[in-house]
Amino acid sequence: MLCILSPQTRLLGPCLKRKVTYVAPLSALHSIANLSPARPKVNLTPLKRFPALNRPFNIRSAAAAMSPVTQFLNTSGEADPVWVHQVPYSKHPEFSPLKENIETDVCIVGGGIAGVSIAYELVNRGFNVTLLEARKVLSGESGRTSGHLANALDDGYTEIAKKHGKENARIAAESHTWALNRVGEIARNLDIECEFRYLPGYEISQYNVNHPGYQKEIDSLREEVKMAKDLGLSVSFHDDLQVQGWDSGPDQRGGAVFENQATFHPTKYLVGVLEWLRKQPNFNCFTDTRAVSLTEEGFEVLGFGKERVTIQTENGQKVTANQAVQATCVPLQKLAVIAQMEYNRTYCIAIRVPKGYVQDCLLYDQAEQYKYVRLTECDDKDDYLVVGGCDHKVGQEDTGGRFAELEQWVRARFTRAGSVDYKWSGQIFEPVDYMAYIGKNQGTKHSYIVTGDSGNGLTHGVLAGKLIADEIGGLKNPWSQLYDPGRMASLAKSLPSMLSHDIEINTQYKRFLQTDITDIEDLVPGTGGVLNKGFSQPIAVYKDEDGEVHENSALCPHMKGVVCWNNTEKSWDCPVHGSRFSKDGVCVEGPANANLEPLKKRKQQPV
Ligand SMILES: Cc1cc2nc3c(=O)[nH]c(=O)nc-3n(C[C@H](O)[C@H](O)[C@H](O)COP(=O)(O)OP(=O)(O)OC[C@H]3O[C@@H](n4cnc5c(N)ncnc54)[C@H](O)[C@@H]3O)c2cc1C
């Protein structure tokens, strides 16, 4: 399936513009042993704006004290995102695992922004809500995001209108505007200090004004401005647009200005909402509780009888619910929507800049793997410029070199940039027709899904709160048909790109015939590789820093793709549908709903 885009496609969405078919030689995937994730600078300066967090803590020692398993229960990678600078994992709300069978009105699976937003809306409407989380709350992509809240959608309204029609493009604009405002409203209502603020969003060319490609990008930006204005957004084109602080490098002036975009500190916000939720009598949450299946059972005819959903957990307990929601970022198992998405990794750095030096705005360029930029609080002296980009398909390219590229990009433009304190990557998903899938799962009566961030997963997650709460509460929502997981018309328009994506996905099975390593001895401590001897199943071998060798099956439990070693995040990533596993084999990203099958663990003998 996926994303073959017209040259005019606009292009701002982590992933969208890539037409990658290149598959890195597997040897390359494993030759990147020494990329050490950035370690944060110790910050002992009292924080001014966040009195509740005014206790100094030493991130370096907190991280060092963490066992490898704990890291992957808290977040989906070895590298920590900048958000831990002010909200370490130890400040995330803690809940206990489910220990007995329970019944509830609505069971939500997944404790990220989608799950928390749906819980918030339903609890407010009086439903009994149970939230299940396989690891710790906020351990998924919501903890690793960059936190732009935009109605300047990544795929561009010109392209969205081509797939969905202009009226639906208007609905997209209206509903995302609602979602970004909703975050501000909830933060205000619950008194959550989360850096929420409105600011302008700038879209600029990737090229210098003298470059031959510059004018074409400016023309397509002007076209986008016209379309967005028609849809009711406050947007204009400025020939002389320049970002304050951009004091060197290429002159990329001129661009679209979208008013009333927003940003926030994602984990401060979500921790605040979860703290409020835990005080509500009609809410409970269980962590370290993986859902392994959701089944609709019972019989219902003309209002008689009762169908319910049984959510079976890995630990053996079950939740029986009137309605269930998969807010697991990617739905579990083999649903049709999984085949309608492209799975990408995107990279971010947080680099110090003196306070007031760089303008507080959201910034995007038009590159195929575009850069996305924002500011967040660091300390009394500096802010962090959070810069993202360098996307590629999961498990299909070398993960090395991406952080260096981002850093060079910043230093070439913002000469007063200081140290890079955080470097991390995360997973993003691109539905073939650009809009997330939110609503009742195809072929079910009481089961809902939310997936397909399309570069705007935060607003899509918040929006899921309204769409799903409205549907469960029996309210007709005029936006719901655009996000319906069963929609057909826009998907039909995307058939050619779906086919080419399918072909590409199937070629990933070639890894059955390949091996990354020929001898475990050759693995550098702290790295992994797949050992495929050809006569038995391929083995995912990880050698830890002490030389202990951990062996798991290299077959992804979802559809038996052979996983690849991701040396940046020390994880096993499946190139087929993007499932990911920690170095120890713990599932951190679906659609797989189980861990890699453990084989053995042994200490390597000294030679
Ligand atoms: C680097 C990066 C930058 C981004 N920037 C932006 C941005 O600026 N703006 C924007 O709008 N979007 C952005 N996104 C996308 C956005 O962050 C995500 O789409 C969004 O956070 C996903 O939220 P979620 O709740 O759907 O999933 P998640 O936050 O991943 O939560 C899903 C949860 O489900 C749990 N789970 C999974 N399987 C099970 C199971 N079987 N049982 C129980 N629990 C389970 C997981 O452990 C996880 O905690 C970015 C993403 C990345 C990675």
TrEMBL record:
PROSITE patterns: RIESKE (PS51296). InterPro entries: FAD-dep_OxRdtase, FAD/NAD-bd_sf, Rieske_2Fe-2S, Rieske_2Fe-2S_sf, YhfW_C. Keywords: 2Fe-2S, Iron, Iron-sulfur, Metal-binding. It holds the Pfam family Rieske. Residues 515-607 form the Rieske domain. Gene3D superfamilies: D-Amino Acid Oxidase, subunit A, domain 2 (3.30.9.10), FAD/NAD(P)-binding domain (3.50.50.60), Rieske [2Fe-2S] iron-sulphur domain (2.102.10.10). This is Rieske domain-containing protein. The lineage of its organism: Eukaryota, Fungi, Dikarya, Ascomycota, Pezizomycotina.
